[in-house]
């Protein structure tokens, strides 16, 4: 699990690798998930939640830079339910995330269509075609 903790704070990603060692930039924190207790997919959803964001945003207010030091990350509270609950939550949240992405795509298409319509109407108005 990767967490961007410097400059652009907040993005998370799951790192799938069989490598025992990886090299990270200084702006990332790597969280290792013990599969007996936590699913990386659950942790990713949790770290995107408002509850988690509230913790690092509050910490950043105390600084002049957008960063969350690794030592301060140890103070974060992580809500970790049992694995069966994590699995159910991940299934539901993944489904909702798919819906969000679909709606986002439709919204972007509508914005593009409106922009095209605006350009067309302006062209018609200025060329005397209206």
SSE diagram, text form:
Elements: E1 2-4, E2 12-13, E3 28-30, H1 40-47, H2 50-60, H3 70-73, H4 83-126
Antiparallel strand pairs: 1-2, 1-3
Q: Can you give a write-up of this model?
A:
There is one protein chain. By secondary structure, the chain is mainly α. The chain folds into two domains: 80 residues, no CATH class; 50 residues. Strands 2-1-3 form a three-stranded antiparallel beta sheet, with no helix packed on it. The chain is elongated. The model has no long low-confidence stretch (mean pLDDT 90).
Rg is 21 Å
What is the total number of structural domains?
Answer: 2
Uncertain stretches: none
Strand content is 5-15%
Q: How are the strands of the largest sheet arranged?
A: 2-1-3
Q: Tally the helices: what do you get?
A: 4
Major sheet description: 3 strands, antiparallel
Work out the helicity level: 40-55%
Q: N-to-C SSE series?
A: EEEHHHH
Q: In total, how many beta strands?
A: 3
CA-CA gap between termini: 57 Å
Features of the shown structure:
130 residues; mainly alpha; 2 domains; three-stranded antiparallel beta sheet; 4 helices; 52% helix; elongated
Describe the structure in brief:
The protein is mostly helical.
């Amino acid at each position: 699990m990767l967490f961007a903790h410097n400059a652009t704070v907040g993005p998370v990603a799951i790192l799938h690798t069989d490598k025992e060692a990886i090299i990270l930039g200084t702006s990332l924190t790597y969280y290792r998930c013990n599969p007996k207790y936590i699913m990386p997919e659950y942790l990713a959803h949790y770290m995107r939640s408002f509850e988690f964001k509230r913790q690092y945003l509050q910490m950043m207010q105390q600084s002049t830079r957008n960063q969350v030091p690794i030592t301060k990350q140890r103070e974060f509270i992580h809500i970790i339910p049992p694995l069966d609950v994590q699995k159910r939550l991940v299934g539901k949240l993944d489904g909702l995330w798919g819906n969000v992405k679909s709606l986002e795509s439709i919204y972007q298409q509508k914005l593009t269509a409106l922009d095209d319509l605006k350009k067309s109407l302006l062209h018609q108005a200025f060329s005397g075609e209206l």
